Amino acid sequence: MNNTNIGIRVNKVDNQEKTSGSAKYIADLKFDNMLYGKTIRSTKARAKIQAIHYPVLPKEYFIIDHNDVPGQNRVKFLVNDQPFLAETVVNYIGEPILLIVGPNRQKLKELANKITIEYQPLTAALTYEESLRCAGGAIFGKDNKFASYTYEKGDISRAFSQAKTIETDEYTTGYQKHAYLENQGMIAVPEADDKVTVYGSLQCPYYIKRALEQALALPEEKVRIVQTTTGGAFGGKEDYPSILAGHAAIAAKKVGRPVAILYDRLEDMASTTRRHPAQITFQTALDASGKIIGMKINVILDGGAYAGISDVVLQRSLFNITGVYHIQNLEVHGCVVATNTIPNGAFRGFGAPQAFFAMEMHMEYLAKKLQKNPLDYKKLHMVKQGDSTATSGLFLDKVPLPEMLATIEKMSDYTPKYELYQKNENHHGIGISLFLHGCGFTGSGERDIIKAKIKLRRQANSQQVEILAANVDMGQGLKTTFKKIVAAALAIPMTDIIFNNPDTDHVPDSGPTVASRSIMIVGKLLEDAARKLKARWLEKGTIEITQAYKQPDRMHWDSEKSHGDAYPAYAWGINVVETTVDPLTLQVDVNGVWTVFDIGQAIDEQIIQGQIEGGVLQGLGYASMEVMTNDQNGKIMQDSLTNYTIPTMVDFGKVNHKLFTTYYKDGPFGAKGAGELTLIGAAPAYAAAVAQALKIRIDRLPVTPEYLLEVLQNENHFLYAK
Amino acid sequence: MKTISFTLNNQSVSIQTNLQKRLVDVLREDFALTGVKEGCGEGECGACAVLANHKLINSCITPIGSVEQLDIMSIEGFKDTERYHILAAAFAEAGAVQCGFCTPGMLLAAEALLHVNASPNETEIRQALSGNLCRCTGYSMIVAAVKIAAKNGDGLW
Amino acid sequence: MVKTYLPHTWQEALFIRGNDDTMLLAGGTDLMVKYHGAPGITGNFPKPLLFLNQISSLKTINIETDSITIGSNVTLNEAAGISALPLILKQALGEMASPAIRNAGTLIGNICNASPAGDTLPPLYVLDAQLTIESLNGTRQIALADFIQGPGKIDLKANEIVRCLTIPRRNNTICFYKKVGMRKAAAISKLSFAAIAQKTDQKITYMGVALGAVGPTIIRSKEAENLLTGKIEILTDTWETMHTIYNSLLCPIDDKRSSAIYRKTIALNLLAYFYKEYIWQ
């Protein structure tokens, strides 16, 4: 296989075990003497725990509380603020307080029902407004801000003083739940000499390993994490598994037996992370021709009760906030605030979907205000190679947007349809979104924090090569694509490559499976290592090649000032969505979806198609039907897959796509990141289409029929008069 | 406890059980058939789907008392058929498998459809598989897989 | 765990019913969700369970010239397959739940669940369906609209079992069904609308309109229907009167699936549409 045809599809290496049902997911494993663990959770959004009353426990049943945590009772994230098990206060409904462990799950449930917890309720902060005024006292720090950033570019005060008009505009977005089909679960197994092994459904083996070392006060060699076949993740198994693995391991340590904690759907829905809701405000300075000369933007994310990785999510929202547009003068503020709700976390796109929805809809809004065609208005501001990024870095590589636009216009007939639907009153609409994805970690995270390392090993007298890396296949096809990269670089058959589920006793820390980095960063390390191995192929004996990450020389980032190249490379996308709205019910039909993406060289075009079809559908769900709200007490209302609706096979049709290939020299065979990019553009394209169909302005996600009715009634606009 | 007798993957079986026990638990725990997945526990996602007298049902909301005298087929039984091999090859060819958690249920839903309609059109496929959720693939590649299977397995259904 | 019964005959079932306070389970697709089990944990049933699935006489479907009778073990899918089934019910069954649920859930189970959002109810209300209920003490017939008393509340005594459902066959020339769900398949209704009518020589000879999920039970107004029935010429202000009647009857709620205002507005839109497109001209 040579480099130019690496993209040609192959059968995925794990098809057979998955179609036949023989793949083992975490809930399919059993260990001798295994006990089950159940989590007892807070029923109050914010309260002091006054007393806990326990039933008499039968033999083999145990209670675990915060006193049983051998090390630090804090989950290791960027900030150590979240306890594994609550101590004196609880900060959200669903916060873990106790574990109850025993052999029979039916009995565990009965015992759990007999535990009573007395609370002294405290005033909870459930909204941005309550959080910002620290209702009930700060949950976090002094001001309830987990993180806040400000950055500037150009001369913002001059731009605003020269402005002909200034437009102000605000957008809000809601939660989204990952709704991976496999619920979260972990099994911790105590081993000889104080060691513990944790098996589970996860994205980031080494995040969990580090969290457990801190929680169990154990040295590195005493904690082992093994990934089991993972039934979807989408970011949901990036951060939360550290908590869950901690629970299982703390319990296993106490009772000296394997402990399985396997969530059912209701518990998974009501206690694991969600996408951050956002509130984004624009003040935009326009010159006499209507061109943008400056923007002041404010972003607030709702982080939930604990910091987790919200800081990094906020960074991605902020550094991508101007979308694909070249804005010369800029002032960006943002913070992520604490509320007494379930902590929010990583989700495919990681702060970017909120930002792109807001910016794309703001561009639509400005164009309409100026009575211009929105696409023409967007084209007027589109970045090109050599332009500066929002954070004053540079778009060093070719920006393929013009060719991509020409292609998608042809595929979708966007412009003639747009013009037709502008005139018609028959509730058709078409929307277009332009977007990018900064591939890999934000800033110098890869160099300064992750420091990825992989190994390739060829045993003596063997033709087989083993990949030793900590990245996981969670459905995105990494087992296939990693093997493909190494096989291609070595020019040997894929069947001679071994890549098992990561086990931290055997694989180095090549970093987490997040941020669309696995192919671009880790895949490149594999390619480079494979080329070194090829050069030494004729050597006798075992060969082991270690390859460590080095930041591309051309990238410059100052994290103190949020200044410079926030990302090493950019992947690009354009989506067009066409809709018809039923005037009777305000239900939306999607008549067509067209997409173009530039992700560099695809390592496998069919796997990329799978990312596109799945990512776009998840984006359309986010745009339309995936409603999640809290009740007045801060409890989630849509707590099951019955009430939290994700798209079925009949809700949306085929996603048409075409790939562009702008070769990226620091990615394997020229590949960039793909997984997250595919989700980002669906919501703004959908919202723009619905807005045109109804001739209204949309400023909120999700765009439900209930919301549309509210907008129409506010505008005193009745589609169906009696 | 009562005795329930049924056919499981072509074999007659009997089990002493409480009738309200969920079929999914009986299959996964008592018969170690872990290809039957539990995704939602309320009949919403189809990961636990099995065939009962060749019709698709959700084993998570089927009490074992309802299974008396039925012919139950899980992926473990189906995988020994020629029709399975056609379907599995079609899923591979179309790239219809990602995380794999919905896959056994999807295959059985496809089998149930093809059993009554050997050459379904796109709408019929989407309707027949509409109770099987997938969060990875966006579904279209699964639809393509069922079409490929119908073509390659012409005469088998 | 509760006690369970698995009778093989109708008489046996009636006898158990007469001697123990049981909960009836046919397909179980509603009850198993309501009393939710989890891996290794059985559902939290409040009463002993009486399984009906082994009683073969309850599988009966009888098609007569003037009615169709459907037994308590007939699944939603089997009911949908009855060729003589009124179109309005067939449409509702086709859009209801998912194929796997329709293979297990029963039509009479959906009735006895008595959810305000029960998808078969609005069609069965307008079809004037009747239930046959038996106990060791005898048999009685009851109109569906009388049988359902409130959300989850039905007129079924502890010793009784619903044996079958009877749907009168009429030649409905007009049929309009609309389910407004949370998505296009496998969805619970936010609201639903079912209307049928017979029109002979420009005259409405029969009419039924029922709305689901906009009140504690299905809403049907004979008063409003009578405004149209038997009239040759429909006055323009008839609509106003009808609208007023339904406007005062519809009392939906805000919940996790939709808003009261959406439910009411859209229900009235559908009513107006039906009136304009099917009746007025």
Automatic annotation (TrEMBL), chain A:
Organism: Propionispira arboris
PANTHER family: ALDEHYDE OXIDASE 1-RELATED, XANTHINE DEHYDROGENASE
Protein name according to UniProt: CO or xanthine dehydrogenase, Mo-binding subunit
Pfam families found in the cross-reference section: Ald_Xan_dh_C, MoCoBD_1, MoCoBD_2
GO molecular function: iron ion binding; oxidoreductase activity
Keyword Oxidoreductase: yes
CC cofactor: Mo-molybdopterin cytosine dinucleotide
Domain Aldehyde oxidase/xanthine dehydrogenase a/b hammerhead span(s) in chain numbering: 20-123
InterPro entries for the chain: Ald_Oxase/Xan_DH_a/b (IPR000674), Ald_Oxase/Xan_DH_a/b_sf (IPR036856), Ald_Oxase/xanthine_DH-like (IPR016208), AldOxase/xan_DH_MoCoBD1 (IPR008274), AldOxase/xan_DH_MoCoBD2 (IPR046867), AldOxase/xan_DH_Mopterin-bd_sf (IPR037165)
Keywords: Molybdenum, Oxidoreductase
TrEMBL record, chain B:
Alphabetized UniProt keyword annotations: 2Fe-2S, Iron, Iron-sulfur, Metal-binding, Oxidoreductase
Any one GO MF annotation of this record: 2 iron, 2 sulfur cluster binding
A Pfam family it matches: Fer2_2
Domain 2Fe-2S ferredoxin-type: 2-78
Gene3D superfamilies xref list: 3.10.20.30, [2Fe-2S]-binding domain
Top-level taxon of origin: Bacteria
Phylogenetic classification of the source organism: Bacteria, Bacillati, Bacillota, Negativicutes, Selenomonadales
Record organism: Propionispira arboris
Listed name of the protein: Carbon-monoxide dehydrogenase small subunit
UniProtKB/TrEMBL annotation, chain C:
Entries under PROSITE patterns matching the protein: FAD_PCMH
Recorded coiled-coil stretches: none
InterPro entries: CO_DH_flav_C, CO_DH_flav_C_dom_sf, Diverse_Substr_Oxidored, FAD-bd_PCMH, FAD-bd_PCMH-like_sf, FAD-bd_PCMH_sub2, Mopterin_DH_FAD-bd
The UniProt record lists the keyword Lyase: no
Protein name: CO or xanthine dehydrogenase, FAD-binding subunit
Pfam families: CO_deh_flav_C, FAD_binding_5
Gene3D superfamilies to which the protein is assigned, alphabetical: 3.30.465.10, CO dehydrogenase flavoprotein, C-terminal domain
Keyword annotations from UniProtKB, A to Z: Flavoprotein, Oxidoreductase
Keyword match rRNA processing: no
A GO molecular-function annotation: oxidoreductase activity
Cited SUPFAM superfamilies: CO dehydrogenase flavoprotein C-terminal domain-like, FAD-binding/transporter-associated domain-like
Source organism of the structure: Propionispira arboris
UniProt xrefs under SMART domains: CO_deh_flav_C
Chain ranges of the FAD-binding PCMH-type domain: 1-172
